[in-house]
From TrEMBL, chain A:
Keyword Thylakoid attached: no
Keywords: Hydrolase
The protein's name: PP2C family protein-serine/threonine phosphatase
Gene3D superfamilies for this protein: KaiA/RbsU domain, PPM-type phosphatase domain
Biological source species: Fictibacillus fluitans
Ranges in coiled-coil conformation: none
Domain PPM-type phosphatase: 113-331, 119-333
Lineage, opening ranks: Bacteria, Bacillati, Bacillota, Bacilli, Bacillales
Keyword Endoplasmic reticulum on entry: no
TrEMBL record, chain B:
UniProt keyword terms in alphabetical order: Phosphoprotein
Family indicated by similarity: Belongs to the anti-sigma-factor antagonist family.
Gene3D superfamilies the UniProt entry points to: STAS domain
Domain STAS: 3-110
Function: Positive regulator of sigma-B activity. Non-phosphorylated RsbV binds to RsbW, preventing its association with sigma-B. When phosphorylated, releases RsbW, which is then free to complex with and inactivate sigma-B.
CDD domains: STAS_anti-anti-sigma_factors
Name the UniProt record assigns to this protein: Anti-sigma factor antagonist
């Protein structure tokens, strides 16, 4: 006798015990028994078929109608079993896909990670946290002899398409070294690449700037990105960083305007993604002046601690459930 | 968090009135409704946004896609009646420069 036959025998025992005594224990044993059935990969339609065989033995005088009814049930269960097995195989496939996404996500993080440069004259802090597995926000620093360039971008659309699009942005930027010094030209070139290559529903917002560490000027251009702030130490005031321009990927011939800002000792450049200002709390949206207030509250700290603290506070206000990717970058002129 | 869309057609102009929120969750619903209209030749679409109190960037993406699609098919797309929050989103992204937006008609007769 093999395992399957044993199980069928056991089913017969359990069923007859229950039919004779109708007690709770037998019922409970029957429930326990279903685990055994799953282990042995006995399908629901097989169970019904065994059930019919046992009934035929126990009640040989069963009416034809009853028998027909059981045959009908058997047919239904065959269809059910079929759908169930399909469902199971889809679930397995889904688990495989999930683990592949996880691998892709971690690959993306390694590919796109940008080192935060260290320079004597600047204190730089960065906090970038994805809401889901993949980050739709992107930032990048490039440092050379007398300048630091910084880009912060938000890829619209979520998940994998956004992540793939981001890799494209990174490689496009790497292949435009000669435009690095001219923020408006860099955006114009990037816009052409994006316009040709992304899905019509997707676009990218970006702020790109170049900080000249010799003369302490910040040259920048914006493509529809959430405006950042400048902090002026002398007057102790925050002002909006306006850099008007159309988002990347909408119109091939878009021109961008370059802006510049002189920074004095203690001044700060604050760049962010709309996940910072669009974050929703139970009381409504976080307004821009609330972000400013948060930065002001932690302003006395080293810059990395400021961005960390602002994130912690906003995370708390959203009850620790980030709805959008969050990126906050601060550059502060130290000397 | 929901989006209602009503659609009427008068003299070959499609009028869509949206209310609720256009975000990552509701955007597919809008897309499903809007895309076939934008793919008609010489189509005219007017979308009223006065009852939209929240739109996120995914929602914005649907309008960008619709704009491109109507242009390709020689149609027009007009947005009107934006609330302040929605208007700000279109302004920051520079889309006010490339889209036909009429916010003056809010509350007035067509």
């Amino acid at each position: 006798m093999n395992d399957r036959d044993l199980i069928i025998d056991r089913y017969k025992d359990l069923l007859t015990t229950y039919l004779n005594g109708k007690n709770e224990t037998a019922l409970y044993k029957g429930q326990q028994f279903s685990r055994k059935l799953i282990e042995q990969q006995i399908s629901p339609e097989d169970v019904v078929s065994h059930h019919i065989n046992v009934l035929n033995e126990v009640f040989p005088e069963m009416t034809e109608e009853m028998k027909d009814a059981f045959d009908f049930l058997l047919e239904v269960m065959i269809g059910y079993g079929f759908a169930y097995r399909e469902h199971q195989s889809l679930r397995t496939r889904q688990r495989q896909l999930e683990s592949e996404i996880e691998v892709a996500a971690s690959m993306q993080q390694t590919l796109l990670i940008s080192d935060v440069p260290t320079v004597d004259s600047l204190d730089i802090g960065v906090k970038s946290v994805p809401a889901k597995k993949m980050n739709g926000d992107y930032f990048n620093f490039v440092k050379d002899d007398k300048s630091i360039s910084v880009a912060v971008a938000d890829i619209i659309g979520k998940g994998i398409p956004a992540a793939l699009c981001m890799s494209m942005i990174k490689y496009a930027m790497d292949s435009l070294p000669e435009q690095r010094m001219q923020p408006n030209l860099l955006l114009e070139n990037l816009n052409r690449v994006v316009e040709q290559n992304v899905h019509p529903n997707m676009f990218i917002t970006m702020l790109y700037g170049l900080y000249d560490t010799d003369v302490h000027k910040f040259f920048y251009a914006g493509a529809g990105h959430e405006p950042g702030f400048f902090y002026k130490a002398e007057t102790d005031e925050f002002e909006d960083m306006f850099a008007k321009g159309l988002v990347l990927g909408v119109s091939r011939t878009t021109k961008y305007k370059e802006y510049e800002k002189q920074l004095d000792q203690g001044d700060m450049i604050i760049l962010l993604s709309d996940g910072v200002t669009e974050c929703r709390t139970s009381k409504g949206f976080i307004e821009r002046d609330e972000i400013v207030a948060l930065i002001r509250e932690h302003m006395h700290k080293p810059v990395q601690e400021i961005v960390d603290s602002v994130f912690t506070e906003l995370e708390r206000l959203q009850e620790f459930e980030l709805r959008d990717d969050f990126t906050l970058i601060i550059l502060k002129r130290m000397v | 968090m929901n989006l209602q869309i009503s659609h009427e057609e008068t003299n070959k102009v499609h009028y869509l009135t949206l209310s609720g929120e256009v975000d990552a969750y509701t955007a597919p619903k809008l897309k499903e409704m809007l895309v076939p209209l934008t793919e008609e030749k010489n189509t005219q679409i007017v979308i009223d946004l006065s009852n939209i109190d929240y739109m996120d960037s995914t929602g914005l993406g649907i309008f960008v896609g619709a704009l491109k699609s109507t242009k390709k098919n020689d149609g027009t797309l007009k947005l009107r009646g934006m609330t302040e929050r929605v208007k700000r989103l279109f302004e920051i992204t520079g889309l006010t420069e490339v889209m036909d937006i009429d916010n003056e008609v809010k509350g007035e007769a067509r």
